[in-house]
């Protein structure tokens, strides 16, 4: 169980769902262990959050366990989307722990937002990878079939075709060095006001020095504090969230960061509801 | 009660099932991979036939659920008043008033089909 996620399903405002998909990882696998790693390395966090003056255990979070994957990725995503949609039908916010990034597609299908904000080192705008439409490197491209606009925040690498796709009107790429300014302008100019959003945190958006336990490390990334600020900025607009691409190839620092960001989301989102 | 029991595995998209005591039409049916030590679970999504409310259900595929027996009947429009139509059932000649669906426009003498379940009725075309 995610620490502090002690509320019953029926009464929950946030439902944590593990989605340990590890089918299309292209370099270092291990995302099948992601949900349990995140739960394990979130054990040490204090229940009380000083900034929002709230306790995690008071925020009506339920852990629904894992939706175990099988080898048909498309069928799994369809089923996962149904599981997450049931959370949305109950007026709760689904909080998915991946699993490879592909699981974001199920979250987007379930929440059906206007806008996808994805914190990611990679553009993930490939039409296919090695002939597979459902490879984790294609997830933002697939999500654009559902959402009106995608913000890829912290992106610093992609293929020529992906950079070309990123120039279209429905994609905004925010490179790492501009993330701070983007967050400030988003809050000042109300960039997401009036839009429903879905937030996906690919942990490889962080610099691998902070988060080495991920499948496809990419240097020159974001600091944990920049990720935290981005999560805080998007959370009030978001109807769903995921943290993905955590694997077991480090000493827990990546899972610890992912778990902390998930908690930041819940604390901020709940505080906004309270206001 | 006009309902029957079925196993979850017998359900399919387009058929009916009771969810939260309301008859619903299934618009999504998917099953998870069976665990090593358990039966597969199905996730069913549906929409209330008479209240249009979306609902969701998760059950093992060998669990039993209630399926409502919804009758499809023929009727003839007697008169139209605002959003309501007075309709005569073509089998029983019983007349009653029904709300006209938003995307339909009806006139006197039109023949319609409607669904009936436990006194609830809905025009379907």
- In terms of DSSP E residues, the strand content of chain B is over 45%
Please state how the strands of the largest beta sheet of chain B are arranged side by side: 9-8-7-10-11
Contiguous uncertain segments of 5+ residues of chain B: none
Tell me the strand percentage band of chain A.
15-25%
Biggest sheet layout of chain B = 5 strands, antiparallel
Query: What's the quaternary structure here?
Result: heterodimer
Q: How helical, in percent, are the residues of chain B?
A: under 10%
Q: What is the share of helical residues of chain A?
A: 25-40%
Query: Biggest interface between protein chains, with counts per chain?
Result: A-B, 14 and 12 residues
Class by alpha and beta content of chain B: mainly beta
Rounded to the nearest angstrom, the distance between the terminal CA atoms of chain A is 28 Å
**From N to C, what is the helix and strand string of chain A?**
EHEEEHEHEHEHEHEHEH
- Element pattern of chain B in H and E: EEEEEEEEEEE
Total strands of chain A: 10
Radius of gyration of chain A: 17 Å
Describe the protein's architecture and organization.
The complex is a heterodimer of chains A (about 280) and B (about 120). Chain A has helices at about 35-40, 75-90, 105-110, 140-145, 160-165, 180-190, 225-235, 255-275, and strands at about 15-20, 50, 55, 60-65, 95-100, 115-120, 150-155, 170-175, 195-200, 240-245. Chain A is of the alpha/beta class. Chain A is globular, with a radius of gyration of 17 Å. In chain B, the strands form three sheets. In chain B, strands 9-8-7-10-11 form a five-stranded antiparallel beta sheet, with no helix packed on it. Chain B has a four-stranded antiparallel beta sheet with strand order 2-3-4-5, with no helix packed on it. Chain B is built from no helices and eleven strands. Chain B is elongated and about 55 Å long. Chain B is mostly beta strands and about 120 residues long. At the A-B interface, helix 2 of A face strand 3 and strand 5 of B.
């Amino acid at each position: 169980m995610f620490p502090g996620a002690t509320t019953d399903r029926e009464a929950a405002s946030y439902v944590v769902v593990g989605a340990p998909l590890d089918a299309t990882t292209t370099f270092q696998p291990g995302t099948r262990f992601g949900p349990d790693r995140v739960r394990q390395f979130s054990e040490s966090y204090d229940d009380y959050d000083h900034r929002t003056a709230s306790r995690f255990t008071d925020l009506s979070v339920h852990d629904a366990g894992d939706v175990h994957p099988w080898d048909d990725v498309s069928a799994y995503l369809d089923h996962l989307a149904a599981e997450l949609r049931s959370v949305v039908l109950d007026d709760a916010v689904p909080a998915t722990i991946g699993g490879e990034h592909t699981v974001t597609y199920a979250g987007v299908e379930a929440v059906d937002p206007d806008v996808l904000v994805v914190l990611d080192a990679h553009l993930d705008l490939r039409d296919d990878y090695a002939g597979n439409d459902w490879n984790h490197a294609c997830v933002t491209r697939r999500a654009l079939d559902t959402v009106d606009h995608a913000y890829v925040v912290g992106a610093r690498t992609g293929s020529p075709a992906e950079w070309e796709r990123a120039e279209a009107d429905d994609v905004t790429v925010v490179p790492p060095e501009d993330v701070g300014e983007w967050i400030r302008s988003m809050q000042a100019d109300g960039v997401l006001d009036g839009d429903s959003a879905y937030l996906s945190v690919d942990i490889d958006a962080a610099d691998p020095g902070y988060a080495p336990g991920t499948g496809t490390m990419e240097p020159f990334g974001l600091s944990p504090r920049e990720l935290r600020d981005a999560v805080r900025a998007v959370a009030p607009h978001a109807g769903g969230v995921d943290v993905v691409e955590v694997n077991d190839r480090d000493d827990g620092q990546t899972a610890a960061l992912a778990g902390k960001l998930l908690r930041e989301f819940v604390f901020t989102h709940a505080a906004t509801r309270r206001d | 009660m006009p309902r029957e029991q079925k196993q979850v595995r017998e359900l399919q998209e387009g058929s009916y099932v009771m969810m939260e005591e309301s008859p619903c039409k299934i618009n999504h049916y998917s099953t998870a991979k069976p665990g090593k030590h358990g039966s597969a679970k199905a996730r069913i999504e549906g929409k209330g036939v008479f209240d249009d409310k979306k609902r969701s259900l998760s059950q093992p595929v060998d669990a039993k659920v209630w399926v409502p027996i919804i009758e499809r009947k023929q009727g003839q429009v007697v008169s139209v008043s605002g959003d309501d139509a007075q309709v005569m059932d073509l089998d029983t000649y019983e007349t009653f008033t029904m709300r006209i669906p938003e995307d339909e426009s009806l006139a006197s003498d039109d023949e319609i089909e409607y669904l009936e379940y436990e006194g609830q009725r809905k025009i379907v075309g």
